[in-house]
Amino acid sequence: MTEELHPYRMTVDLNVLDHLADGLYSSVAAVLTEAVANAWDADAREVRIDVDLAGDEIRIADDGVGMDRDAINDRYLRVGYRRRKEGDLTPGGRLVMGRKGIGKLSLLSIADVIEVRSKMDGEAPVGLRIRVSDVRKAMQEGSSEYAPESLSMAGEEFEQGHGTKIVVRKLKRERLRDVDARSLRRRLARRFSVVGSEDFRVVVNGEEVTPADRDDLKFVEYLWVFRGTEVDTTACQQLKEGPPLRSMIVLMDGRMAGACAGGLAPSTGQRDSPLPKVT
Ligand SMILES: Nc1ncnc2c1ncn2[C@@H]1O[C@H](COP(=O)(O)OP(=O)(O)OP(=O)(O)O)[C@@H](O)[C@H]1O
Ligand SMILES: [Mg+2]
Predict the structure, then answer these.
(1) CATH number (domain holding residue 16)
(2) Ligand 1: residues whose CB is within 6 Å?
(3) Which protein residue has the closest C-alpha to ligand 1 atom 4?
(4) What domain range includes position 255?
(5) What is the tens place of the pLDDT at every residue in 58-114?
(6) Domain identity same for 170 and 232
């Protein structure tokens, strides 16, 4: 009876992973941005990215809260896990960036081997290895499940007692065209406007990413600070002092993109791209 009422079945093939990973993440910078967003959500204070093309691997290590086996299975290895809503805060009080539970799939698009080692405070470290070629094999055999290998964690150190280390190996060469350090730093600096602060440091190949890496501050003429945000303006060489503005209309390509009114004096603030002319 039930079968007659529900004769249809919707299944989602592991194949979808390929399409998701391939279609969504166009560049290594986009992929690494996802990993940094995850570290942000884990309340990490520092993320270290080491791109070692000669050694055929990329390492991403954060000092966030880390994961235990359950968190790995229920969140990391679950595609589409969704717990957060717009405006949710992390235990550390940050606005959560992750939404869809698919960000980690991006790693599958740049390498064949993904190793995740993680540790929560006071818990045993855990580790696993995903081989994309094995995921594909499982999928070709009609399986909708894949079991990553467990890694021995003997001798594995986590400086702060917690955190997550991801190593991707056997890099897919065609995906690596755009991995020049400058554009990677630019993208990270623009996406994470808090870089360079005490609270969140992102270090790429040993060098900290700073607001100057945004590469757009040199175009800025007028800046406003909201809620007392501290902004390093040393890279803003064209910054103009002006009389206090009462109101303004923002026009982009001749169309009104925004307007505001108030008694704010122009001083400092941040934008993601060169500011349009305000008329
Ligand atoms: N570096 C990390 N430290 C601790 N937990 C992590 C880390 N990376 C991922 N996770 C856990 O794995 C889950 C899945 O990560 P994933 O990036 O796939 O999705 P998301 O961040 O929730 O959403 P989005 O698809 O928007 O990125 C996260 O919600 C988090 O619980
Ligand atoms: Mg994410």
Answers:
(1) 3.30.565.10
(2) 34, 38-39, 41-42, 62, 64-67, 75-76, 81, 98-104, 164
(3) 66
(4) 216-260
(5) 999 999 999 999 999 999 998 887 667 778 899 999 999 998 888 888 898 889 999
(6) no
